[in-house]
Design goal:
The chain is mainly β. The protein is 8% helix and 48% strand. Strands 1, 2, 3, 4, 5, 8, 9, 10 and 11 form a 9-stranded antiparallel sheet that branches. A two-stranded antiparallel ribbon has the order 6-7. A hairpin with an 8-residue loop joins β1 and β2 (25-26). The longest helix is centred in the middle third of the chain and has 8 residues, at 76-83. It is globular and about 65 Å long. The chain starts with 6 loop residues before the first strand and ends in a 7-residue tail after the last helix. The mean pLDDT is 91.
């Protein structure tokens, strides 16, 4: 189904990482207003086994998932949380030794049939992004912050994404309550 919108972007910091035997623990999801676009680009590694001049078998595996987010405004408190920076007296302090935490992100999109598509990406780290800032010319052109991240499968259950479709507004309430609540 065709998607015709994007809204309600949230993130939750992973407070305890997942292991082979335990699920991750996430903090409370936090909303950032003004999501403009999300580009999700999974890398799929493929291999073919050839024999007798034909493909006898094929296999694929999921690699990293590159995510790029454009947002109307990225408050410094959220930028600090996503990149592992600190805030001192209202000033964002970025150090080369900072380490971004793993986070989950979630959002929703309206579908052309009136349903809502809900999506969660479960484990990723954001990194510093290129900034381009232009002067104002004869016409006004908005420049929005961009942040990029790399998402991977979780260790304990190999999940990287949860997706559902619904016209039921109760799903939205539970969907955003926590990362693993569906």
């Amino acid at each position: 189904m065709a998607i015709i919108g994007l809204r309600r972007f949230m993130y939750a910091v992973m407070t305890t990482e997942d292991t082979a035997t335990s699920a991750p623990v996430y903090g409370t999801p936090k909303r950032i207003i003004g999501i403009n676009s999300i580009d999700i680009n999974p890398t799929v590694n493929k291999a073919n086994l050839y024999g007798d001049d034909i493909v006898l078998a094929t296999a694929s595996s999921l690699g990293e998932i590159e995510v790029t987010i454009d947002i109307a405004d990225l408050p410094i408190e959220d930028l600090a949380a996503l990149l592992g920076h600190t805030i001192s007296d209202g000033v964002l302090v970025s150090k080369g030794s900072d380490s971004a935490p793993y986070v989950a992100i979630m959002f929703e999109s309206e579908k052309h049939n009136g349903e809502t598509r809900y999506v969660k990406l479960l484990k990723g780290k954001f990194s510093e992004s290129q900034e381009t800032i232009n002067t104002r010319g004869d016409s006004i052109e908005y420049q929005v912050p961009r942040i990029t991240g790399t998402f991977v499968s979780r260790t304990n259950d190999s999940a990287w994404k949860h997706t559902t479709d619904s016209t039921d507004t109760a799903v939205a309430t539970t969907w955003y309550a926590s990362v693993d609540k569906q």
